[in-house]
Amino acid sequence: AVAADAADAAEHTTTDLERVKCETISKIDSDASIEKNSLTATIMAQAKTIEEQSKEIRRLKNENVIAGGAARAAQAEIEKLNNRINELRMETSSKEMLRMRNENVIVQGVARCAQAKNERLNTRMEKIIKENDALRQRDNPKTSVLQAQLRAAQMQISKMTAPFAQQLKDVRGECEWWKKELEKMKQEKNLLSIKVNSQSKRIADDSNSLQTLQLQLLDQLILQARMTRMSSEQSQLKGASMKDREATVLGTPGVPSDVNPNTSPFGCEVKIEEIP
């Protein structure tokens, strides 16, 4: 009778253990299903986010290519302008130097002629003044005639020097005009340099944004790999549970052959007490 009661108690204990095991496995399956659904929803949301980020990355790449092309075009335009400025500067300097050299030679020759003529006129004027002083003492009418000659000589000198003054004025005006043109070219070069620097800064900002998006995408891939590993572990756990059920159907309920009969499959020791 004691053995029968013990067997009955062991059977009830085994039945309870089986029920607890089934409930535990059912709860694990339910929790795993909930966790799987949650992870699936999270993966779908993250996949959508990854897709949007991929579109953003492609858009930034296209903008980066466009900005790089604009920067290269601006750089080529600056180089073209610099070459043109250098060519104009060389042509202008060479032509201007040649023209000014020729004009300088002409002006120097004319100036030497005018100086020689002026010296002759000065000599004549001094001679006239001396004669005027000598004649003043003798005859006043002759003095008035000499003064008229002196005034005529002074007017002639003024007429001879007037064209050279106008030529010098024209040369100075043309030099001022070339200075203004060179200043305008320098301003255009500075504006193009500012534009290129702005494009370069924008390219650097787009590169930083692209690097940030790549890091976020890498984090998403790592999370996805972690979720895949968790799904694999859940599949292994389900496989182990199925093996335990098959062992229960084929052998001693809940007691594998290599486990202590007084120990439950969950590691808890089962004590069977005799009923007096």
From TrEMBL:
<keyword id="KW-0175">Coiled coil</keyword>
<feature type="coiled-coil region">
    <location>
        <begin position="168"/>
        <end position="202"/>
    </location>
</feature>
<protein>
    <submittedName>
        <fullName>Uncharacterized protein</fullName>
    </submittedName>
</protein>
<feature type="coiled-coil region">
    <location>
        <begin position="43"/>
        <end position="138"/>
    </location>
</feature>
<feature type="region of interest" description="Disordered">
    <location>
        <begin position="233"/>
        <end position="267"/>
    </location>
</feature>
